[in-house]
Amino acid sequence: MSQEKIEIIRNKFKNASIEELPELMGIYHEDGRVGVGKILERAQKKLDTYNKELDRVQSMLSYERQYGEYGVICGIDEAGRGPLAGPVVAAAVILDVNCPILYINDSKKLSEKKREELYDEIMEKAVSVGVGIASPETIDEINILQADYVAMREAVSQLTPKPEVFLNDAVTVPGIEGRQVPIIKGDAKSLSIAAASIIAKVTRDRMMREYDKLFPKYDFAKNKGYGTAEHVAALKKFGPTPIHRRSFISNFV
Fold first, then answer.
1. Taking a C-beta distance cutoff of 8 angstroms, is the pair 210, 241 a contact?
2. Does 1 score more than 60 pLDDT?
């Protein structure tokens, strides 16, 4: 075994899945070469990071475990309450808690690239995902909170099976039948809510990038409709677009 080239061993570790690492480490743990020792150290760090993430994800399933006896659980969250332009988007997600998706977290704590990756994984592995959208016109007509509720109810209506328990990020949604559990900062405490926050955020960001193509003067691809100094300056100079929330921009135009 000691005669096996280090480069071959390195490639074995490189190509091994995280589940295969412990067995592979056991095979080479008595190889005294410095190069192999460094490979084992890197593998151990990778394994420690993985196990730490497993523990974090399990800690974010505490509400799901607590209320699991009451039936199917979904997490609900929204994106886009504060911007001056664009819709508000809500998502509702039912996860398979027996096969949790690693690295799910509050969408605000993730990079755009990681959100996009997790969006695809959630859409693939979740039991069910629903997305609801409330337009700027709806926001202006009934206010942002009620528009939030409209989007959330729409998202929930798309789920199969029908949830019995709803984990919500700090709100109780009128018109939803079932047990609702409002959780302050829920997107950082519940894996289901965090998953919903990712779906809502990515969906809305994609919409704003498309709007940027229609209205390039406002830089929606970058600011996502939020009231940055550049966005406000463009609003004052060029006036509102059809996707601006009239009830939000009265101070600027």
1. no
2. no
